[in-house]
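Input.
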Amino acid sequence: MEYRVPYAVQNRTDGPEWGQFALEGEIGRRIDLYNERGVKSPHAREEVFAEARSYFRDQQDDALRVGYWRGEFWGKLMLSAARVCRMTGDREFRDFLRRETYALLEYQRQDGYLGTYRDSRNMIRCSLKAGMEDVGWACNYNWNVWCRKYTLWGLLEAADLLDDPRVLSCADRMAGQLLDDLEALGVRLKDTGVMSGMPSCSILKPVLILYRLTGKRKYLDFARSAADEWEREDGECPNLIVSAMRAESPIRWYDRDRSPAAREVFSGGAGTDGDEWIAKAYEMMSCFDGICELYRVTGEEKYLSAAVRFWEGLDRYERNVMGSVSYCERFWEAASHPDGATEICDVIHWMRLSWELYRITGEARFMDAFERAFVNAFLAGMYDTGDFCAFFIRSHGRHYDAVMQCKSRFQNCCLNNLPRGYVNGAQAAVTAGEDGIRVNLPLPLTAEADRTKITIGEGYLTTGEVAVTAVREEEAGESRILFRVPDWSRTTTVVDEAGNLTAGEPGTFLTLPLSPGRHVFTLRFDMTPRILDYDGPVEALPASDYHVQRWLGTKGTQSEVPRDIMLTRPMSTIRRGALILARSKKIGADEADMFSGETVWGRNVTASAEDVREEEGFLCRCRVVFRDPDGEERVYDMCDYASAGNFSSDDPRTFTLFV
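Output.
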């Protein structure tokens, strides 16, 4: 579908056209399996989509004074399904998505409203007292605008996929009606919903897409007005643009003393009045996705600066041990905690933020973060059955399975979002721009970019030696090929077909000329295992702490793990190349050994690794030898963390990434 409004600022580099990239190897196998079982299956079409659509017919999200979020499910499903359809080029599935979209549009009101709240203007949260009376706990949910965001975005994705003006017109009418509702109520967007309006304000991204598709100025004005509320001189929460410039953890934006009482209030715990500031990771990163888009549309540097500084704060203070950000779905200085648990939606949106900033700037550090999250945290949550995922992934024990939300049979936010993550991973592997073709993730794949076919073989996640073949059309002329030097590889080289060797520093790109014809490059990365010692204190948290309760899961369910496996002393992790390694019962690890508390931490231990064998179901398997300075050795069979527990486990002591 043609955009009427071009970007004021073009991306420095971008992914190939849809249908011109596909991951292969073990990751590609998992993606193909999930496409068939989780996205395109009869169950997904006939039951999952149908249930999500039924919520627009029934409109029960505001049946109580507490407002729910069933209205997000259809939009998330459509976003994921449309992107899978674009990636695979499946025409039959495209026809299904057209029928599904038209079926949803049958529920659009004459005034344009399309949603799961019977009262479209029910956008203000209820009191905690009303929530207690309705649901038995102090709850003040209202997700009306958040739900409309996802429906709008799903319709825009469908309109683009189908090149269908009817669907675009319905999306336009839907968004226009939301603006009318806000005007009639006389409220700001940030006054709606919960968490100081962050979920509602994350509608910024699809509204800007709609502006570019329709050219209607009112949508740009609306987006600007929402962003203006994040630059307030009075500091009113959440003030995202101003606060982001501090490059701190968001938990510190308004909480300066780190006292237990303040931390409980600012994380939404006891003692709050229902208007609390909650540093909720998924929703906040979604807002910055919109801020990145506002920068592209307007060219105003303040938006890019805020997004970059926000990212820098997260990368420094919120990076967790699994390769993503956040601690138990909230920003809580995750880097200061020795263990970790994080929601899969958080992983996906950390990847998205890093990807958007990489597209805009071309800076390698953003792709380093994307890779770390994708091949570790994200894939850990993508279950090996091909049709299910984790809600939370943990550093050890077992992952917390996706639970069906809002009393649904088939709907979970992470489950519905998951395909967006792996499509993003495939899309990011090879990109192109004015400076040439970039090989960002040298995973097994085929891709076409800038009239050049790229084929990458195995080895990046195991031996560290990778063959890259580039076949450039004769009429395409001269260009360049850039190979990212990952931050974990101390020594990286590329050898061309003439035997010329080029070396590069971590965090840069190896740049070689690319002429028409066939070229073969051999990349070699330093795969020496690196032991990472946790360097902070281990803080004993009370059992009443929200994060402890979330980490431990719900008593008596699959999500539960025992309190005694939470770390009470510093331990180490080990990384080999891009992968975090782990021990697991899946490969025969002993439970008593894994959870004994013995550690190499602080002992100046070195490690070496030898690949055991390639095996379906693993990104790598290796035998790791740890050596003390006095020569004492211990040997562990290890695998990649992403494969150590990527299944629904009945055993709360299944794996650990600690050594």
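Residues 531-656 form one domain.
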